[in-house]
Design a protein that fits this description.
Residues 58-187 form the DUF4378 domain. Residues 83-111 are annotated as: Disordered. The protein is mainly α. Helices cover 59% and strands 0% of the residues. Helix 1 (14-33) crosses helix 2 (57-80) and helix 2 crosses helix 3 (111-126).
Amino acid sequence: MVSEDLYYAVPHESEEVRGIVADVVEIYWQSRRHGEPLDNVQIPDNYFSKEDINGDLDSNSRRVFKTLLFDLAGEVIRDIYKDEEEEPPPWQKPKRRHQKHFRGASPPTTMENLTPIVQQAVINTLGLNGSRKADRNKWTVRKRKDHVDNILVEELREEEPRWINYDEDELAVKMQLTDTIFDMLLNDTVQTMNKVYQKKKSNRV
């Protein structure tokens, strides 16, 4: 009798993936703590275990998958802290941006708070939260359509705050008003100087 158990060459359990992602978060956190750009973080040698570098097919599969996890987690972390690298000028009002990974006005300030956020984001991306079934052959056209609809709805929710964000319009109006006031002051100054000049000229005559 042939066993129906599936063999997975790469980590497929949620807890195992969470453990690997936790290691990735620590790598990025150490770089951030030392003030290094998050875009320059590279995979260290000790990220891969001996099982990942044996050279056989399973090892190569694990190494590729762990590289994927590193890239996914890194993308989430960079997205969380991207506003820190985009400081607006003092005269510009900070933009209100929708953050899909965490709630609150500021990003996590400790690795302990950051880790579960990144873990959940990666789990959701890989579909290990129970939203996908192992047997892909059971997917119907209806299920595929629902999945696409869910993605579109999520994208619309992320874009919605931008539709009602008037920060750029407000800044444009302020700049236009500033230019108008400056022109008026400049015009008044020129007229005043002309009057003074004409008065001095008439007194000389």
